[in-house]
Specification:
The chain has ten helices and 15 strands.
């Protein structure tokens, strides 16, 4: 499935682009194919009201595309296949709230960080059996949802449970959204996620979900590329300019404070 997304950006984004004119590399309309998952609100997801793929990352990449004069094309792929596919050169880039980690950097190149997030515990709105990681770990009847190979999976294994990656209390799902759905239906009792995605789900859930406990750690998000990609340097330059001129702050306000999924 392909999407070519033309995001409507605010005046501050356009002003930022004008300010950066002539200072960033010009990619001369180059087509850049980006792998996405569309299951990580508010970074990227399919808006139930419109059916369009939208989110923070789409708006950010639309702005990067304008500043660098590149034509962005999106292809949908599952998370568990994304890093390997980008590493093999099937896509020019990948984006889906990907945590920058040394083990992943052995397979792909990362951009500079465009966002810092902290891990939180997402539970049902009426959950009263535990209120923190220790309480969850102490009750063997409680189950956690996770995608294999993700930061929430490893935090769940090593920071919440006993360090056993085969622990049967962790139920594996192909997508993050499927794990959240299992939480809502009572098939699992906890989903670990970065705070950005967690707040997006809570805001859309009308009381059916909430966040409990202390934050469990900090992670930096980056875009991924095949090793040696010549896109890393221009993308980093655009990210730096967007940080400096307030564009990223404006995106944070839009997607984490103002926007409501389905609204």
């Amino acid at each position: 499935m392909k999407h070519v997304i033309g995001a409507v950006l605010s005046v501050v984004f356009l002003a930022g682009a004008a300010m950066g004119a002539g200072t960033l590399p010009d990619l001369d309309g180059r087509e850049v194919v980006i792998a996405t998952e569309n299951a990580y609100p508010p970074l990227q997801f399919v808006d139930p009201a419109s059916g369009d793929a939208v989110g923070w990352e789409y708006d950010a990449m639309a702005e990067i595309g304008k500043r660098l004069n590149m034509n962005v094309v999106y292809e949908n792929i599952s998370w568990d296949a994304m890093i390997a596919a980008v590493s093999a050169g099937q896509y020019d880039m990948g984006m889906t709230g990907i945590t920058i980690r040394d083990d992943r950097a052995e397979q792909v190149d990362f951009s500079d960080s465009y966002m810092t997030s902290e891990m939180v515990m997402l539970v049902r709105g009426d959950e009263d059996r535990f209120s923190d990681a220790a309480g969850f770990a102490a009750d063997d009847d409680l189950l956690m949802a996770a995608q294999p190979g993700t930061t929430p999976f490893y935090v769940g294994v090593y920071d919440v449970l006993d360090g056993d990656e085969g622990n049967t209390r962790i139920k594996l799902f192909e997508t993050f959204g499927a794990g959240v759905q299992a939480l809502r239906t009572g098939d699992v009792d906890l989903v670990l996620t970065d705070g950005t995605a967690g707040e997006g789900y809570v805001d859309a859930a009308d009381g059916a979900l909430k966040i409990v406990g202390e934050k469990l750690g900090t992670e930096e998000f980056g875009f991924i590329f095949p090793k040696g990609s010549d896109l890393v340097e221009p993308i980093n330059a655009a990210i730096a300019e967007m940080k400096a001129d307030g564009t990223l702050d404006a995106l944070n306000k839009r997607w984490f404070l103002d926007f409501k999924i389905g609204g």
